[in-house]
Amino acid sequence: MRNMIFASACAAALLVSGAASAQVTGTLGGGYSRITDHGGADIYGVNGSLATTIGSTSGWSFEGTGSYYNANPGAADLWTAGGNLFTDTFFGRMAFGAMTGGVDFGHATSYGVGADWFFSDDITLSLKGGGNYATGGNTGGYVGVQGMYYLNPNLALSASADYAGNSSNLAGGSLGDLNTEKLRAEWQFSDTLPLSVYGGYQRYEIAGTHANAIFIGVKFYMDGASTLVGHHRTGSLGYIGQSFYQIGAY
C-alpha cells in the first residue's frame, strides 16, 4: 500500500513529460502532530503534491497528492494518495477527484467535489463534499467547510469543520459519525523564499469520544508566486484537494 502514496504525483509527472509547454506547480512539506488525550501519541510525516495543466487551451489541470505518516505508540503507518481535476471559475476554483488512504490493516476511499470562492483579496471560503467507501463494504458521506483570512499577503488564519457520516474504522466496521474542527495559522517569512511554517489545533469526535491534537509543519511551494496568497490561489489546491480523514499536520 505504501507504494501507492505518490502514485498520483507520478502520473502527473508523466503528463508533464508529454507536454513541454504545460505549467507545473507543486508542494513538499513535513509535519508533526501530538494527540494529547487517551495516553497521547506522536505522528511524524511528509506530504507533497504535483500539478500540471492539461493542454494549452483546455482550462483544466490535474493534481496528484500523497502523504506518509507514522504514529507512535503502535508504530502505525498512515498514508494517502489521490488526484483531482480542477479549473478556474468566475468565483475561484472547482475540483473533482478521489483520495484513498489508510493504515496497515485497511483503507478507505473518498470521492467528491470541492470549490474555493475568492470572496475578496483577503478572504477565501471553501466547501467540499462527497462519499466514501472502506474495506469491508462500509459506505458513507462527508462534507466540509473552511474559511481563510489573510492578515497580510504572507500570513493566513483558517478555521475548518468536517463531518463524515457512518465513518469507517478502515477494517470494515463503522465508527458512527466523525466530526473534526481545525484552527490553523500559516506564515511565509520572505517573498524571495517560498517556504512557510504553520501550526494549529485540531479536535476530533468519533462516536461520542473526543480527542485533541496540536500540530506544526513546514511547506515549500513550487509555483512561481511570491506571496502566500498567491501560492494558495494559483498553486496547490490545499483544503479542497484533501480527504476528510487526513490528519492535522498537512
Overview of this structure, please?
The structure is a single chain. With 250 residues, the chain is mainly beta. The chain has one domain: Porin. It contains two helices and twelve strands, in the order αββββββββββββα. The chain has a twelve-stranded antiparallel β-barrel. The protein is globular, with a radius of gyration of 17 Å. Mean pLDDT is 83; it is low at 1-20 and 168-173.
Question: Main attributes?
Answer:
single chain; Porin; 2 helices; 64% strand; disordered N terminus
CATH class: Mainly Beta
Helical percent range?
under 10%
Poorly predicted regions are 1-20, 168-173
Overall 3D form: globular
* End-to-end C-alpha gap: 20 Å
CATH fold title: Porin
What is the CA-atom radius of gyration, in angstroms?
17 Å
What structural class do you assign from the helix and strand content?
mainly beta
For the largest beta sheet, what order do the strands appear in spatially?
Answer: 1-2-3-4-5-6-7-8-9-10-11-12
Count of DSSP-assigned helices? 2
Mean pLDDT over the residues: 83
Beta percentage is over 45%
What do we call the CATH homologous superfamily? monomeric porin ompg
CATH architecture name: Beta Barrel
Tally of DSSP β-strands: 12
Order of helices and strands: HEEEEEEEEEEEEH
Number of domains: 1
Largest sheet: 12 strands, antiparallel, barrel
